[in-house]
Amino acid sequence: MTPFDHDLERGLRNRRSVLGDAWVDRSLSKANAFNADFQAFINRYAWHEVWGRPGLDHRTRRTLVLAITLALGRWEEFELHVRAALSGGDEASRLTVDEVKEVLIQSAIYAGVPAANTGHALALAILRELGEAPEHADLHARLAPALQPAAVPEIAHPGVGRSHFTATAPALHFTVRGAPLGHASHPAVTRTFVLCHGLGTDHMVWDALANALVAAWPGARVVCFDLRGHGLSDAPTSACTLADLVADAHHLLDALGAPAGTDTGTNKDTDTASGPITWIGHGLGGTIGQALAAQSPARLAALVLAHTPASTTPASLTPLTALTRDGAATDAATREAQADAVMAHWFSDDFRQAQAATVVRWRRRLLSAPLSGLALHPVAVAAAQTRPDTTALSALPTLVITGALDTDAPPTEARQHLLRHPGAALVLLPDAGHLGMLEQPALFQAAVLPWLTSLAQP
User: Fold this and answer.
1) Which of 39, 240, 248, 282 has a CA that sits 20 to 30 A from residue 17's CA?
2) How far is CA 201 from the centre of its chain?
3) Boundaries of each Carboxymuconolactone decarboxylase-like domain copy (predicted)?
4) CATH value at residue 113
């Protein structure tokens, strides 16, 4: 299988967010043997490396692009970005008609009135193309409903973090946003978030939440890691157990300098010292977090269980296990059907229709797993094992999140967690399947961030 290219995929995601699916799909459909390398270059470097840089949000970058393309007379790009700014891509990053007008007026001073004249004419044509005449009093309301000016955080888009690997076997890949590792001059970290994905995905599933955590707690450290057999972590060569996955988690926390329990010793590496860990786990990642906390309660300060099964085997595990077990021995049509079956469990029907590009990206991620998926099979087997004993976790602050349409961790199972975690909070995401952080990122963050804020600080 073709290796999964995270930079390319993140670039495509940013490009779709800014320009909209329809335009990007048309552009990609024109790719051929001659321009494919250029398409890949644009997606990696323009849309990932530049549009994904720290410091500026997408609304600010839209404004810059409009001014620069107008000043240089790059009218094809100017029209593209005016149209996208008013009606395409992510609604939260769109510009209002008045903001576009102000860009044109400002540009008239620094780029010349003739350029601004052309810009006004092209922008007016686009407004009419969108079915709106500027004479309509409700133009602004219809083009940008309920869009209010928002304060831009100090770090509007903190990027994807720096990559590291644990020194243990298997080597685990992890990224660090916020407070860096290995800097003696950096003050001790008072809060650390560790985000663990579920079976078949990888650390990229947490991009939006990880960026939001850094924006909310600029002095914190936010760590996203790949389970063995996933992403850039080493692939297992033999069967593994839940205990092995928990041991991996201990090794990761040791690498971070996280507080250790009496059973693992105390890490004295002040250069990487971390505060108490808040573990945010999805699916299997939540199960690992529970087992980790049961073994070493001193290592965790709080636990978020996102779409984590309480007892039964996840509904998607059967097609996923078949997909990973058979590997290259299975014909392509069967593997495609198995991947489709997994997507039907991961995403709700409405989301699969409305956000086909996101579904395709994660389907491609699943099919491009190491060794054509065979490396995932030992982990899939471990995921089906007995759930950890959580009777000792009653004092650990816990948030439980699942989707109302989640067939892998349905609301009935989410409520079982409340019996094991007295005092835990429960949030149901309406109309969401198994990957709520992707289907409803705003609601997911609105559930997690205030709850974390409410916890007593160490």
Assistant:
1) 282
2) 10
3) 37-125
4) 1.20.1290.10
Sheet of 300-306, strand order: 162-165, 173-178, 221-225, 192-196, 277-282, 300-306, 398-403, 425-429
**Interatomic CA distance for residues 240 and 94, integer angstroms:** 47
Mean pLDDT of the chain: 83
Q: Which domain holds residue 329?
A: 162-454
- Write phi, then psi, for 441 (nearest 5 degrees): -60, -35
Structure tokens that stand for 445 in this block? 């963050």
Beta-bridge mates of residue 456: none
30 and 166 within one domain: no
pLDDT at 389 over 50: yes
Long-range contacts for 7-10 (Cβ within 8 Å, ≥24 apart)? 7/44, 7/48, 7/49, 8/40, 8/43, 8/44, 8/48, 9/204, 9/361, 9/364, 9/365, 10/47, 10/48, 10/52, 10/160, 10/204, 10/207
Has residue 1 been placed in a domain?
no
Task: State the DSSP H helix or E strand holding residue 416, giving kind and residue range, or none if neither.
Answer: helix 411-420
Query: Strand 300-306 to strand 277-282: parallel, antiparallel, or no bridges (unpaired)?
Result: parallel
**214 falls within a domain:** yes
Query: CA 373 to CA 179: how far, in whole Å?
Result: 34
What are residue 139's phi and psi, to 5 degrees?
-55, -50
**110 and 196 share one domain:** no
Type of residue found at 276: P
Q: CB-based contacts of 55: which residues, under 8 Å, 6+ apart?
A: 155, 156, 157
The percent of residues above 70 in pLDDT, for the chain, comes to 83
Of residues 384 and 366, more confidently modeled = 366
Query: In Å, how far are 44, 122, 197, 253, 360 from 370, measured between CA atoms?
Result: 22, 48, 16, 24, 18
Per-residue DSSP letter, 396: S
pLDDT tens track for 292-314: 988 888 889 999 999 998 876 77
Domain count of the chain? 2
Q: Which residues, 6+ apart, have CB-to-CB distance to 332 below 8 Å? A: none
Q: Residue type at 200?
A: G
The token pair at 362 is 């994660």
**Local structure of 401: helix, strand or coil:** strand
Give the Cβ contact number of residue 312 at 10 Å.
Answer: 14
DSSP 125-163: HHHHHTT--TT-TTHHHHHSTT----PPPSSS--TT-EE
Quick check: pTM over 0.70?
Answer: yes
Q: Is the peptide bond before 170 cis (omega within 30 degrees of 0)?
A: yes
Tokens of residue 63, six digits:
């404004």
Residue 450 has pLDDT above 80, yes or no: yes
